[in-house]
Specification:
single chain; TIM Barrel; nine-stranded mixed beta sheet; 12 helices; binds ligand LLP
């Protein structure tokens, strides 16, 4: 979203026109931005055999998945339902990685039957997989390297106390099971967490995986997960991709040399690919001055974008209806849910009038996918701006969606 001719635009379409045509609250994604991010990642790792597997939990709309597929990006899924969405978007099973945590074994069997490759993240699951498939189905192992990094405790996944992966200190048990069943381990995986700005954390975790790689003669893949930090506000530190690319690629080449064969380097970014592409457009229902602060109450809330409430995350907000004003004011931007759902506190915005359209930026990742029907409100519609045109890619919910699957007992 850019200001051009004194108005906010996405691919030259005035954002206000999109809001008017489709109504608010509305998620709008810019396909060009997604493609730009894919290319950024590719150019940072241009010297290695890079495969990108979009962590689709960040944004599962099937049109977005289709866009990823058209751009040569695979997907990482965490449930049979995400797997089904991937297949629906035209992916082959072989383009899909299943990285579940603590699921029942039948989910793993479903994913194997669909042709996906599985990241096994528990010794008992590794054992069951070995017993059932022996060396007939290639697999990957998710390692927990015990590296603590990430934007906040809720989104860290590789530290000592984390439930994810098989602890690197259990390497002997892993190797024993693999050898007992002659398993075809083609990849090692690790995912450190989300919002990681320090290249050093990626390198430290990678070193542990690289070292273990030598124990697997059939290894083809090192999957370093996702977690690149994006900028949620001006001046926010981000993962420096060119530096990270240079550092990791160098270490990766050394590993390939040491092992005497070429490996693929996989990443599973979610936020990095889609966060900046998305905005949540909302309507300022009320402006409410009080003696010590002025609230702007919008037609959305934690039911549509839970990140500020759940993680204390910052989302930049702009007044789309008043893009170039000399008059600013400080507001608390709050939702319409019946509990405190503050999007932004003491935020300076161009003066807000009732019925102005506001945009919450960087809402492409973990926005819609974490939305709910709390307060029995409809989830927003979704729009993809693709090749200069705004396309509806999910209709706004209706009362039918709220009533779906509910059963009236007819209690007299
Ligand atoms: N791979 C695995 C195995 C993951 O668990 C995740 C995210 C990713 C990749 C992608 O991470 P990303 O590149 O998006 O940071 N809801 C939180 C983020 C939770 C991330 C969960 N796992 C948020 O809104 O900040």
């Amino acid at each position: 979203m850019k200001i051009n001719n004194n108005q906010y635009e996405i691919q030259s379409i005035p954002v206000l026109d999109i809001a008017q045509q489709f109504g608010t609250p509305l998620y709008v994604y810019d396909a060009d931005k997604i493609v730009e991010k894919i290319n950024q990642l590719r150019s940072a790792f241009a010297t290695v055999d890079l495969k990108i597997k979009f962590a689709c939990k960040a944004l599962t709309n099937i049109s977005i998945l289709q866009l990823m597929r058209q751009n040569g990006v695979g997907i990482d899924v965490v449930s049979p339902q995400e797997l089904a969405l991937g297949l629906h978007a035209g992916y082959q099973g072989s383009d899909i990685t299943f990285t579940p945590s603590g699921v029942s074994f039948d989910e793993i069997e479903t994913a194997v039957a669909a042709g996906a490759i599985i990241n096994l993240d528990n010794l008992s699951v590794l054992q069951k997989f070995g017993e059932k498939y022996g060396n007939t189905v290639p697999c990957m192992i998710r390692i927990k390297p015990n590296v603590a990094a990430g934007g906040n405790a809720k989104i860290m996944t590789a530290h000592e106390g984390s439930k994810f992966g098989i602890d690197i200190r259990q390497r002997d048990e892993i190797l024993q099971i693999v050898s007992q069943y002659d398993m075809n381990v083609v990849g090692l995986h690790q995912h450190t967490g989300s919002d990681i700005k320090e290249a050093e954390a990626f390198v430290r975790a990678a070193d542990i995986i690289f070292e273990f790689a030598a124990s697997f003669p059939k290894l083809q893949i090192i999957d370093l997960g996702g977690g690149f930090k994006v900028s949620y506000k001006e001046g926010d530190p981000i993962t420096a991709m060119p530096e990270l690319g240079a550092q990791l690629s160098e270490a990766f080449h050394q590993l390939s040399q040491k092992l005497g064969r070429k490996l693929q380097l996989w990443f599973e970014p979610g936020k990095f690919l889609v966060s900046e592409s998305g905005v949540l457009l909302v309507n300022a229902n009320v402006v409410k001055p009080t003696p010590n602060r002025t609230f702007v109450g919008v037609n959305s809330g934690l039911n549509h974008l839970i990140r500020p409430m759940m993680y204390g995350s910052y989302h930049h907000i702009v007044n789309v209806s008043n893009p170039v004003s000399t008059h600013t004011q400080t507001y608390d931007v709050v939702g319409y849910i019946c509990e405190t759902d503050t999007f932004a506190e003491a935020r300076t915005l161009n003066e807000v009038h009732e019925n102005d359209v506001l945009a919450l930026l960087n809402a492409g990742a973990y926005g819609f996918t974490m939305s709910s029907q709390y307060n029995s409100r409809f989830r927003p519609a979704e729009i993809l701006v693709y090749q200069g045109k705004a396309h509806l890619i999910r209709a706004r919910e209706t009362m039918e969606d709220i009533l779906r699957n509910q059963i009236l007992l007819n209690i007299q």
